[in-house]
């Protein structure tokens, strides 16, 4: 790939999008990010013909809480409401009255978020009634993890599970000399409230490990680009670094020399980057080293790093993705889904305050449908972060349209108990058990001229930020916001809305049914291979035979995983009659003739959904063809090319899955359609 070219695709910060009309603006605020807000305002006035003026002339005033009294008075908006004095640093207030409006940030950071809120409203003076509205993020941690390698990895490429070309940060084994695209990326992140970013793959190879030491200057440069947008940088670190980088004979967390190696590595970082965020760690997982190698617990490992970071205010995001990836497929009692709970819940209460346990949303690995991980509801004395995957590893790899916000909303609202019990979001936000861990997600962005491979995948990045800020926002309103900010033409917006709405369910229809998971081609994970992982050590099986399919995870006759949930879920998942259809095969091995709540048999459901999924993709393609001429180029052609690939791939999935289950079961389709 050539050095990174500038892109014409501004994503949702399209400069010509209607924003704040032709208002007269004033900025009178304090703090280091005010310069960033000022640059945004200058940009707006250039594009939209508004102008900057003193506060008393302005129709829209941007200020911070420490100056609110004087500024609001000068703007004729009276005394600030009491709530303005209590704003947290990331919060902002919108004060309206007499045809004027003020945005008051709890700090300069809150003001930056408030500015982007105004921008989203497009015509803020036309919205809302007079008075004061308060906006504050639900989850204080809103973080993106990049799985970027500095050099191209021989198997995983430059970005592990990256589907948007190379890395935005690194090229040719080093930091890109021109970071302008990163600058725009940082701005995109701030516009949806992301406040942390981790800069390298959690599988930390030798070269990438040196970001901590001899390549620290690269981290300094990236921090300089993210800082003006209020985004703190983190590094993924390798647990063996004291040996591989420090030449010590061990990486045992109990060893004094190891502890002091980490302490001095951390000191050097903070000397260079005083607002450095901390570390992300994948330990004892898929070949990465960790504390188990020294007979220590994950609390011992995490706390050692946490103690090196604590004097500087840093944090450790320690991943709970720990399981045996060398399992014997013949052994049906070992269940990968159980692993995180079994490893981590006994450690509840043993992690230091600056450790966050980062838990994938499902117990397996970002499949198109999984139940919510029971770990999230089972560790009340531990800070927990929910980990989501914006990069579409198992949901079409940014060649297929798959709008993921509806899935994430469902996860965030899952209650660990009866309906009024604390939800996933309550845990991640610290409302259920303080303090909070937050929302962490694997980024889907790369050097691609459209940022995300499929231009519609930009909506997933946008939605991640919006839901992390406010999980109550409906997925469809977020989509509308994104469409309004991204496309000028209404017919294009309508077409994109119709293509993207329900696209998660469509993807599920033509791929792995009823929560069964993993029917992808091993290695790269794209396209169908029903038995691809069936006889491997990875712990991802569907157990299809001539009579039935699915994994028995009940307490009565299976692996007992269903018992890791609190009631009523443990009892509901224990029985096939009370398990929701979409998760049936995750929890139960059932005959093909088993009747779903929908009234269909499992086998007929498989046939029907696979045919329906392909039909829906045909409709998507036809919908885009109708508006393609109105959409901007080259985006329009990219979308068409991706939809054509989605159709090809969906047909391949349909035919392989249907044929596989027809051959296993011998049961014909009751509608007599072609199955090979
Ligand atoms: C970064 C899955 C992916 C791996 C990824 C891993 C993880 O197994 O296939 O590429 O590694 O998850 O989350 O650590």
Task: Give descriptors for this structure.
3 domains, 6-stranded mixed β-sheet, binds 4-O-methyl-alpha-D-glucopyranuronic acid, 21 helices, Alpha-d-glucuronidase, C-terminal Domain, Chitobiase, domain 2, alpha/beta, 13% strand, 676 residues
Structure overview:
Residues 452-673 form the Glycosyl hydrolase family 67 C-terminal domain. Residues 134-451 form the Glycosyl hydrolase family 67 catalytic domain. Keywords: Carbohydrate metabolism, Glycosidase, Hydrolase, Polysaccharide degradation, Xylan degradation. By secondary structure, the protein is an alpha/beta fold. It has 3 domains: 11-135, 2-Layer Sandwich (Chitobiase, domain 2), CATH 3.30.379; 141-486, Alpha-Beta Barrel (TIM Barrel), CATH 3.20.20; 507-551 and 589-665, Alpha-Beta Complex (Alpha-d-glucuronidase, C-terminal Domain). The chain is 34% helix and 13% strand. The protein contains 21 helices and 20 strands. The strands form 5 sheets. The chain has an 8-stranded parallel beta barrel. Strands 2-1-3-5-4-6 form a 6-stranded mixed beta sheet, sandwiched between helices. A hairpin with a 2-residue loop joins strand 4 and strand 5. Helix 9 (256-272) crosses helix 10 and helix 16 (490-500) runs antiparallel to helix 20. The longest helix is centred in the C-terminal third of the chain and has 31 residues, at 635-665. The radius of gyration is 26 Å and the shape is globular. The mean pLDDT is 96. 4-O-methyl-alpha-D-glucopyranuronic acid (GCV) is lined by residues 147, 160-161, 202-203, 282, 286, 321, 365.
């Amino acid at each position: 790939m050539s050095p990174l070219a500038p892109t014409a695709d501004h994503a949702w910060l399209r400069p010509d999008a209607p924003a704040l009309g032709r208002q007269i603006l004033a900025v009178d605020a304090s703090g280091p990010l005010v310069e960033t807000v000022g640059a945004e305002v200058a940009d707006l006035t250039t594009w939209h013909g508004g102008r900057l003026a003193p506060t008393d002339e302005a129709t829209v005033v941007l200020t911070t809480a420490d100056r609110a009294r004087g500024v609001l008075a000068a703007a004729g908006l009276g005394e600030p409401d009491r709530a303005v004095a209590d704003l947290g640093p990331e919060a902002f207030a919108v004060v309206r009255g007499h045809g004027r409006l003020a945005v008051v940030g709890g700090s300069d950071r809150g003001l930056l978020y408030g500015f982007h809120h105004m921008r989203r409203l497009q015509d803020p003076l036309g919205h809302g009634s007079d008075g004061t509205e308060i906006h504050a993020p639900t989850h204080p941690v809103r973080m993106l993890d990049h799985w970027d390698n500095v050099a191209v990895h021989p198997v995983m490429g430059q970005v592990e599970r990256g589907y948007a070309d190379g890395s935005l940060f690194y090229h040719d084994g080093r930091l890109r000399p021109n970071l302008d695209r990163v600058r725009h990326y940082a701005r995109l992140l701030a516009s949806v409230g992301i406040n942390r970013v981790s800069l390298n793959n959690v599988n930390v190879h030798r070269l990438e490990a040196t970001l901590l030491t001899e390549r620290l200057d690269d981290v300094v440069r990236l921090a300089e680009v993210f800082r003006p947008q209020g985004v703190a940088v983190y590094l993924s670190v390798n647990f063996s670094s004291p040996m591989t980088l420090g030449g010590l004979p061990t990486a045992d967390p109990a060893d004094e020399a190891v502890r002091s190696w980490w302490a001095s590595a951390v000191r050097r970082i903070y000397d260079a980057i005083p607002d450095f965020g901390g570390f992300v760690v994948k330990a004892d997982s898929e070949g990465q080293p960790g504390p188990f190698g020294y007979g220590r617990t994950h609390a011992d490992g995490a706390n050692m790093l946490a103690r090196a970071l604590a004097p500087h205010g840093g944090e450790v995001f320690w991943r709970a993705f720990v399981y045996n990836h060398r399992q014997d497929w013949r052994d049906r009692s070992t269940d990968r889904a159980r692993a995180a709970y079994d490893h981590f819940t006994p450690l509840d209460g043993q992690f230091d305050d600056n450790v966050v346990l980062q838990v994938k949303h499902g117990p397996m690995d970002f499949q198109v449908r999984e139940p919510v991980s029971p770990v999230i509801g089972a560790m009340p004395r531990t800070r927990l972060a929910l980990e989501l995957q914006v990069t579409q590893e198992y949901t079409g790899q940014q060649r297929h349209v798959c709008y993921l916000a509806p899935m994430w909303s469902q996860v965030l609202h899952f209650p660990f108990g009866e309906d009024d019990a604390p939800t996933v979001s309550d845990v991640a936000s610290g409302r259920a058990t303080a303090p909070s861990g937050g929302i962490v997600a694997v980024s889907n962005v790369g050097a691609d001229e459209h940022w995300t491979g499929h231009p519609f995948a930009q909506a997933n990045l946008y939605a991640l930020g919006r839901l992390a800020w406010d999980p109550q926002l409906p997925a469809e309103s977020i989509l509308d916001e994104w469409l309004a900010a991204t496309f000028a033409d209404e017919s294009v917006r309508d077409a994109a809305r119709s293509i993207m709405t329900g696209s998660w369910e469509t993807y599920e229809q033509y791929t792995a049914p009823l929560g069964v998971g993993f029917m992808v081609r091993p290695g790269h994970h794209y396209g169908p291979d029903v038995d691809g992982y069936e006889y491997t050590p990875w712990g991802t099986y569907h157990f299809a035979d001539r009579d039935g399919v699915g994994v028995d995870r009940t307490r009565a006759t299976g692996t007992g995983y269903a018992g890791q949930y609190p009631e009523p879920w443990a009892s509901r998942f224990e029985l096939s009659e009370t398990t929701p259809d979409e998760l049936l095969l995750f929890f139960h091995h059932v005959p093909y003739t088993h009747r779903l709540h929908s009234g269909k048999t499992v086998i007929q459901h498989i046939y029907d959904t696979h045919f329906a999924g392909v039909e829906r993709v045909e409709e998507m393609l036809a919908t885009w063809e109708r508006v393609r001429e109105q959409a901007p180029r080259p985006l329009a052609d990219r979308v068409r090319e991706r939809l054509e690939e989605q159709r090809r791939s969906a047909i391949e999935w349909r035919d392989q899955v249907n044929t596989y289950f027809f051959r296993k079961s011998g049961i014909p389709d009751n509608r007599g359609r072609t199955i090979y």
